[in-house]
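pls ignore typos typing on phone
coenzyme A + seq
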Amino acid sequence: MIIRPVRDSAADAAAVREVAAAAFGGPAATVRQDAPDVRAVRHEARTRHLVRTDPQGCWLAEDGGRTVGAALSLRREGLWLLAVLVVDPAVQGKGVGRLLLQRAAAHGRGCLRGMLCASPSPAAARRYRLSGFTLHPAMQLQGPVDRAGLQDPGDLPVHPGGPGQLHLLDSVDRRLRGAAHGPDHGFMLAHFEELLVADSLAGSGYCYRDGGEVKLLAATSKRIAVRLLREALARVPEGTDALVEHLTAEQEWAVDVGLEVGLTVGTRGYVALRGMRPPVPYLPNGAFL
Ligand SMILES: CC(C)(COP(=O)(O)OP(=O)(O)OC[C@H]1O[C@@H](n2cnc3c(N)ncnc32)[C@H](O)[C@@H]1OP(=O)(O)O)[C@@H](O)C(=O)NCCC(=O)NCCS
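k done
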């Protein structure tokens, strides 16, 4: 078996997607609602984006020319983030994940802080804890939005945002987690349905929404965060279930908003952090964190 860098090619992006689908039990195992072809295109585009921004952070495991595992990681201003760690079920439990994680983690050398959203897999939890991450059990909110529960928005304005506000988004992130998302906003703006921004004397924040999914939310106060989350949920199309993931106990403000609009609370996986406490109020993106 060899571990080699992922190339910025259609073939490697497809290989990462295929091994990820196998590791997670195929697309049918996900709760997401977008069409499989949209998901595939986005997955491959995301791999190529990360290979371009972080060529040293992205690794493939190959055995006899067949891809058996992948790790994609990124470094943003002193924060190391793990986007993907997957191993083909046929070779799981044989140390491939450990080797891939070691290579990806080497890209984060010199970063004092690390962050990843972990699946419920006990093997993953073991790997991450043994790599020094603190595992914060996470909740998710899911289901149809009961619009009767949506509160009057009050006097905090929220607007659709765009590329002109990237400095604001980066400032919010630096304050909350010590590092901006930088080039990842370009990807999120291109692939997610909308960006909502709040910026007033009361504070600032932003939220990406795509269909029913809240993809990322960061704000300088819980009041702004609550306003953004309510607005995002109000904009979930009728007939589409909402999904808000990666909520640790610190994000109770978001759990309360979910309960207001009738979403169901469940537990799923962990937010794993090294060298930092959970940023608050903050809902990470599973890949760009
Ligand atoms: C998580 C994953 C990447 C790990 O890769 P892997 O090659 O199986 O991992 P390794 O063999 O290097 O290490 C797994 C460790 O967990 C242990 N383990 C495996 N199954 C376990 C279980 N059910 N309970 C507890 N420990 C378990 C193994 O013994 C091993 O520990 P050790 O090396 O200290 O003995 C892989 O299992 C996978 O792709 N899972 C499905 C997708 C997923 O959840 N990815 C993580 C996303 S955050």
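Helices lie at 10-23, 36-53, 96-107, 122-130, 166-177, 184-191, 222-234, 252-260. The domain at 141-283 is CATH 3.40.630.90 (Aminopeptidase). more later
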